[in-house]
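pls ignore typos typing on phone
protoporphyrin IX containing FE + seq
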Amino acid sequence: TLNAPDHVPLPQPVLAPLTRAAIFLVLTVKPEPESCATIRSFCSDLAGLIRAVEFRDIDAGLTCIAAFGSEVWNRLFGDPRPAELHPFREFRRGNRHAVATPGDVLFHIRAGRMDICFELATQIMERIGDAVSVADEVQGFRYFEDRDLIGFVDGTENPRGSVALGAALVGEEDALFTGGSYVLVQKYLHDMKAWNTLSTEAQELIIGRKKLSGIELSDTAKPPSAHTALTVVVENGKEVKILRDNMPFGQPGRGEFGTYFIAYCRTPRITELMLENMFVGRPPGNYDRLLDFSKAVTGGLFFAPSATFLEDVGE
Ligand code: HEM
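k done
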């Protein structure tokens, strides 16, 4: 049973630094009640499993975040629910579509090297494989100078330190879920042939930053449709932030070039507002031209409860 915590709950490592490697594993939980029991008992064992794999190369900085979708939350944990957990909200306009795709559980595994991420994913599947189906699995890598595959430095404006903490973690507004975080993921595929036909200047107007230096275009040079204009959200006169850890992925042999978008926020509202600005436009029609070259093929919203919550599951 869940009681209001009498101590400050420990968050999962949402604020872990960017790493060279990551695995994004999205699973659906099978309908049988045993499947839920398997996942529940796994929740309290996860921390120990991570510690065991982490210790094989402590310098690799292995972290793992487990997060849960809206529908499965009730099946796994019942009431109470995180106040703002709901199914992924789709946005659609013209040929742009932020799709919702199946997914109950998300594992976001990060480390300085892929082998240790791979090992943890293997061990997780060993434990819960019979209870789940795999909806999506992506291995991401850090590209030159923290660039995404469209060639721009990605992550510059991420909040740091205490600002990141305040942006990403649920506080007193939902006291039973303090220390948790809403995670939104989308897998994007880029049309690199079309993107590469653009001049560097045209690409810079789409992103709103210089390609080589990563420096922001001046207010007069940056069009209102720029990616870094539409993703700036101001509430009560203050800019509100999300915490991103995008990773490139792909298979050049198959012509697949992608960005796995992942963002943590203390409320899904902010990330959804950014999506609306990008896909529908602010004002409607003034949309993000990055979407003329990038297609979202998955979309999911999850809640990553505190580590304390996970350890207490099943007690
Ligand atoms: C900024 C790339 C999707 C939110 C940026 C920047 C790049 C970039 C290159 C500028 C550097 C930086 O500050 O990080 C991409 C790519 C995407 C993608 C390749 C997928 C195709 C998204 C989505 C959202 C988003 C879906 C939100 C729902 C942001 C935010 C900023 C940003 C908040 C910082 C804006 C600022 O404060 O200047 N992105 N992005 N991005 N992006 Fe994205």
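Residues 33-54 form the longest helix (22 residues). The first strand starts at residue 21 and ends at 29. more later
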